[in-house]
């Protein structure tokens, strides 16, 4: 299921991971003040924490093109998301010719519908997926999470450009220790994210993962928030897909039933 999940990897999911193991970290999270300042400046540059907190729904539409030499199909996507104080629901639809895939949160029981065939996933598949296509939402959540370790790794060079490197991870349980590792790179002049490197757990094995790089560009204003309208991804160092967003609607009405997973199928 890795191909399907990678194509639909930019779905919104901002909930805490469910525990796969009760082992807890006994050390206090380390949150470097210089790193915190970089993240705060980035969130402010993209609209600010107040604007992020007011987001109740997001609908983004666009197209995806595979990197040359890869077998993934090109097509169009719709990402539909709903936020409440208690939960977040998502529906990501990918269309390519006769192929239609829909990845839904299923109110805590996520799954993929591929041309009518239903495959159910364990809850961690959704709970470890973050909304990287809206970086400010992810960063605001990490800043608010006092369990998140945040380290300042200093200046570096990224694609020939100077960038500030920040490393983040959460150690509350074994799943988080494996899946929460992120490396962010920021433009020191604009404070905007240039890249995030993160992990996607396998849909069958929680502690097996691929490392994804997402390069952000073409930031545009969308109802008070700055969003990258172009995202180029790589998997384990190999170029995979380029996502181009055509439109974004924030706080448009979204039906809860949109996130239902049809009955049938299995893990």
Q: Any descriptors?
A:
single chain; 13 strands; 13-stranded antiparallel β-sheet; disordered N terminus; 267 residues; outer membrane lipoprotein receptor (LolB), chain A; 6 helices; alpha+beta
Topology:
Elements: H1 2-7, H2 33-45, H3 49-53, E1 57-66, E2 75-83, E3 88-96, E4 99-104, E5 111-114, E6 117-120, H4 123-127, H5 135-144, E7 148-158, E8 161-170, H6 174-179, E9 182-186, E10 193-201, E11 209-222, E12 225-235, E13 238-250
Antiparallel strand pairs: 1-2, 1-13, 2-3, 3-4, 4-5, 5-6, 7-8, 8-9, 9-10, 10-11, 11-12, 12-13
What features would you describe in this structure?
The chain has a single domain (2-249), classed as Clam (outer membrane lipoprotein receptor (LolB), chain A), CATH 2.50.20. It is 17% helix and 43% strand. The protein has six helices and 13 strands. α2 packs antiparallel against α5 (135-144). The radius of gyration is 18 Å and the shape is globular.
Quick overview of this protein structure:
By secondary structure, the chain is an alpha+beta fold. Helices cover 17% and strands 43% of the residues. It has helices spanning 2-7, 33-45, 49-53, 123-127, 135-144, 174-179, and strands at residues 57-66, 75-83, 88-96, 99-104, 111-114, 117-120, 148-158, 161-170, 182-186, 193-201, 209-222, 225-235, 238-250.
Q: What is the fold-level CATH name, i.e. the topology? A: outer membrane lipoprotein receptor (LolB), chain A
- Which descriptor suits the 3D outline? globular
Query: Which architecture would the CATH scheme give at its second level?
Result: Clam
Question: Which whole number gives the mean pLDDT?
Answer: 87
Distance between the termini: 11 Å
How many H/I helices?
6
**What is the CATH C-level name?**
Mainly Beta
Question: Structural class of the secondary structure composition?
Answer: alpha+beta
* Beta-strand content estimate: 35-45%
What multimeric state do the chains show?
A: single chain
Quantity of strands, as a count: 13
Overall number of domains:
1
Helix content: 10-25%
């Amino acid at each position: 299921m890795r191909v399907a999940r990678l194509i639909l990897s930019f779905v919104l999911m901002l909930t805490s991971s469910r525990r796969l193991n009760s082992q807890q970290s006994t050390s206090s999270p380390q949150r470097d003040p210089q790193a915190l300042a970089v993240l705060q400046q980035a969130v402010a540059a993209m609209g600010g924490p107040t604007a992020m907190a007011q987001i109740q729904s997001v609908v983004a539409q666009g197209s995806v093109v595979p990197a040359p030499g890869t077998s993934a199909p090109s097509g169009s996507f719709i990402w539909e998301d709903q936020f409440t104080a208690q939960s977040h629901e998502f529906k990501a639809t990918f269309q390519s010719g006769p192929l239609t895939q829909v990845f839904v949160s299923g109110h805590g029981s996520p799954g993929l519908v591929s041309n009518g065939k239903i495959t159910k996933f364990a809850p961690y598949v959704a709970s470890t997926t973050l909304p990287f296509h809206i970086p400010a939402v992810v960063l605001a959540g990490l800043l608010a999470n006092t369990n998140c370790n945040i380290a300042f790794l200093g200046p570096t060079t990224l694609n020939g450009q100077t960038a500030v490197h920040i490393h983040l991870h959460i150690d509350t349980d074994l799943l988080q220790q494996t899946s929460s590792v992120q490396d962010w790179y920021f433009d020191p002049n604009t404070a905007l994210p240039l890249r995030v490197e993160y992990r996607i757990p396998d849909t069958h094995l929680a502690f097996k993962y691929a490392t994804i790089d997402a390069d952000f560009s073409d930031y545009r204003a969308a109802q008070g928030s700055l969003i990258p309208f172009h995202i180029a991804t790589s998997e384990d160092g190999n170029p995979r897909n380029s996502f181009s967003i055509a439109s974004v609607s924030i706080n448009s009405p979204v039906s809860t039933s949109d996130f239902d997973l049809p009955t049938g199928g299995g893990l």
